[in-house]
Fold:
Amino acid sequence: MTQAALTPGMAAIVLFGTFFLLLGLRVPVAFALGLACLPSLVLEPRLSPMVLFNETFKAYNSFILLAVPFFLLTANLMNIGGISDRLVRLSRTMVGSMPGALAQINVVMSVFFAGISGSSTADAASQSKLFIDAQTKEGYDLSFSIAITAVSAVLAVIIPPSILMIVWGGVISTSIGALYLAGILPGLLIAGAQMATVHVYAKLRKYPVYPRATLKEFFVSALESVPALMTPFIIVGGILLGWFTPTESAAVAVIYAAVLSIFIYREMDRHHLVTALSETGKLSAIALFCVGTASAFGWLLAYYQIPKALLENVTSWGLDITGVGFFIAFAFLVVGCFLDAIPAIIIVGTTLEPLAHSVNMHPIQFAIVGIVALAFGLVTPPYGLCLMIACAVAKVRLRFALKDTMIMVVPMLLVLVALILWPDIALFLPKLIAPELVK
Structure:
């Protein structure tokens, strides 16, 4: 390590300079991460380009990453199997009488779906098809409809079961069960902030309201939805009770979703199953390829001791735990604008972990602040994958809905600030339900 041809500063310039140059040339992120490793591997006498292949494939030798395709398949089975329709009816009986009724239903649906899928992109795709056209037909502005659909989809990476929490727990060795519990309150607070924003929009723009549902309608809808709503309890509860690992819980979720769709709701046939498997394969390949190339990129960061050099510079600022919290959030917010959340965790999360440890920040708080900050990257350009999906469904350019999206992001940012100032927001449920996981 001490005899490396490049200094940490030079290596960082080569790695990140090449990466951002490739992004500017519109090379996909996963390929850009891998190709950015090659100059350093060629310049370093003790390394060779084969390191890229070795480290990429080594990243896939992880049992916990199997949970990613399983949760994506669960989401697809839920969409195809008629489960989403029942959750929409339940949401309508709960918040349909509130100002901006259909948009409020959109947010509540995202909360429910987040507890099932763990994938914001899957949520954005399904919710966009379901709500954008329906909202515009009822008189909602198209830009507002796109924005609320996109920002509510980010809840899927915060509320358990979250794919990002699985990746974080596997890469940074943090209890996934504790992360699941820690994500509940922040997720609900962000959902509350979104619903409050919808309320203000609805009052100003006079969006429609549905008649208040009767108790009978609510209980009938709830009864139909109970089997679907049991999914997050099975997943999280099974992990906390020690019945199965996170990966096994994802496999159980697939089986449960299939049984519901085929035998209980009876809305999925062979054709639908093939479609779900095909879509899962495509999404899984994209997500996991990013994991592999990001791992190779992260290996080079460690080889050149770039995180150590960064830590030495930042610790010289004399930041306390709150200052470090804001620095971590800022770093993830900026990186999330350019990079997918999974490689960002592998590269930036592992880089900042020693900094968080140096001020005794709890690993759970560090994880939740990082994951929530990364969630904003799903709706902020130039990356903004959820916003891109919603705009693509609505057949408009991304900048069309940018103003309303940024307005909706502001109350969500206040929740992120609260998570930094008051760590117990994230730690409350883990300490209450599973204190042994947070010691």
